[in-house]
Amino acid sequence: MTRTEIKPAVSAVKELLAQEPDALREIVRSVMQAMLEAEMDEALGAGKSERSDARLGYRSGHYPRTLVTRVGKLELRVPQDRAGRFSTELFERYQRSEQALVATLAEMYVQGVSTRKVKAITEELCGHAFSASTISAINKKLDGSLAAFAQRRLDEPFPYLILDARYEKVREGGVVGSQAVLIAIGIDWDGRRQILAVEMANRESATSWKDFLLRLRDRGLHGTEFVVADDHAGLRAAIREVLTGAAYQRCYVHFLRNALDHLPRKADDDCLQELRWLYDRRNLAEARADLAQWLARWSAKYPRLTDWAEETIEETFSFYRLPRRHHKHMKSTNMLERFNEEIRRRTYVVRIFPNAPSCLRLVRALAVETHENWLEANRYLNMDELREQKKTELRKAA
């Protein structure tokens, strides 16, 4: 489709959505229905009513199937063949995370810690109420596939590693508290992102992060040269101990947020804006030169901030040792943000998890869905430049 053809198509879609709010849901439903029909054509070796010597079977009507999606419930018609051999994989990946959400909500209801709203949501999603045995069956099926994902071997090297944690409300022993969800993302030498691990911990401590990284290493994690993470004392200690030799990049976004703690409430916006610009320079020499100018300009007005920045900012400049095209991706933990946003969207419905396993089940299900989408997408980074840079460094060292 040419650019001149795209514009009218986009305008038509926008007009449709403006006139009919449910139009997006209908578009998604139509696409998924077409995918189901195409799957059946491929399985039978012929289209509907098509005469072909290569035909492997015949259609036998449809059966209804409801799929819960981000745009609402879709009522689909799944094609059947006379021999009963046709099976679609279209729903399996998408429904894994949806089942985890439903199971969590239903578990809350069964344990008596939910509200009428939760009961209504679960019945709306699945069309019926839940018993303890139903939830047990759902969880048993989910937990098997999620455990296989969490325990898989990491045979390939991951030169880049991104670590972060978020907190969820969990009920334990009748008391609601915050528990940490520890997340690790790796980038392999093919330039693809992979979610390596998602685990629960009572809190972010040196011990919990060390155990987390040791389990990754036991599963085969190796070849890590560059780690991006927040400035957490326990995490930094664990990185130094377990990932010996890997360079540490302190997330510059978190660093800039921390800078606010060293400024008065009514501070000059230009000060932080100029500090932010240091991370857009071409190389470390330029960044350090601009840092010197920034310190000279603001040290008299904001000595507390400039003293703190001068002492700690170098660890946010580690990304400058990487190929320039990798800078914007590896100077922060932002690549985790979209995944975290999806977690927030789901956990907002739950609010308080009935127990830690239900929280881990939902987040891991989302991790599997995201992980598979990333593997099927285009490469996130071109690693050829990093290979060439390493070769150059080895030649110089020799």
UniProtKB/TrEMBL annotation:
<keyword id="KW-0614">Plasmid</keyword>
<keyword id="KW-0814">Transposable element</keyword>
<dbReference type="Pfam" id="PF00872">
    <property type="entry name" value="Transposase_mut"/>
</dbReference>
<keyword id="KW-0238">DNA-binding</keyword>
<keyword id="KW-0815">Transposition</keyword>
<protein>
    <recommendedName>
        <fullName>Mutator family transposase</fullName>
    </recommendedName>
</protein>
<dbReference type="InterPro" id="IPR001207">
    <property type="entry name" value="Transposase_mutator"/>
</dbReference>
<keyword id="KW-0233">DNA recombination</keyword>
<dbReference type="GO" id="GO:0004803">
    <property type="term" value="F:transposase activity"/>
</dbReference>
<dbReference type="GO" id="GO:0003677">
    <property type="term" value="F:DNA binding"/>
</dbReference>
<dbReference type="GO" id="GO:0006313">
    <property type="term" value="P:DNA transposition"/>
</dbReference>
<comment type="similarity">
    <text>Belongs to the transposase mutator family.</text>
</comment>
<comment type="function">
    <text>Required for the transposition of the insertion element.</text>
</comment>
